[in-house]
Amino acid sequence: MIDPELLAKAGATLKKYDKGEVLFHEGSHAIFYYQVASGEIKMNNYNDEGKEFIQGIFAKDKSFGEPPLFSDFKYPANAEAITASEVWLLPKEKFLKLLEEHPTIHHKFTSTLASRLYYKAIMVSEISTQEPEHRILRILDYFKKQEAQGNTAPKSYKVTLTRQQLADLTGLRVETVIRGIKKLEQKGELLIKNRKVYR
């Protein structure tokens, strides 16, 4: 998102997180801009029964948790390291100053946040009304668009998400995701090769 050299120049620090370590908790105040240098971070919530719902997964060069930096509300979710990770942390005031000094980056953030809002709106609709197979395809197509760098050919995107992560992203049970993936393969929507799923 933001060039690491520019982040460092603006006063960002690079911090290491172990797998499972929490970067911030739901309900806490936003004091940093976060950008992944390596590894993977997820934003999640837990319901009263302890079931996890993943709001998003962020890999190298992706930022997360920005909305509270622009307004006076607390984080609506937790951020947790999926793997050992390194993350850039830039204090809120310095981040806002950086955006003021670089309108192009500011515009990029506006576009990114609009895309995420669209994704959230789609997923709310999907979870409340659509069948499991449809939900699975929708989330896979979203990640394919984000990660495939323009390659939209059928079965060209290797899914890196686990079945558990797919379940947590779609509000489904793992068993339902596994059955759904098998049905989608039978319909020709997915390819399973060496236990890996391709869309």
TrEMBL record:
It comes from the Bacteria. SMART domains: cNMP. The keyword Transcription regulation applies. Keywords: DNA-binding, Transcription, Transcription regulation. Residues 130-199 form the HTH crp-type domain. PROSITE patterns: CNMP_BINDING_3, HTH_CRP_2. Pfam families: cNMP_binding (PF00027), HTH_Crp_2 (PF13545). InterPro entries: cNMP-bd_dom, cNMP-bd_dom_sf, Env_Response_Regulators, HTH_CRP, RmlC-like_jellyroll, WH_DNA-bd_sf. Residues 15-116 form the Cyclic nucleotide-binding domain. This is Crp/Fnr family transcriptional regulator.
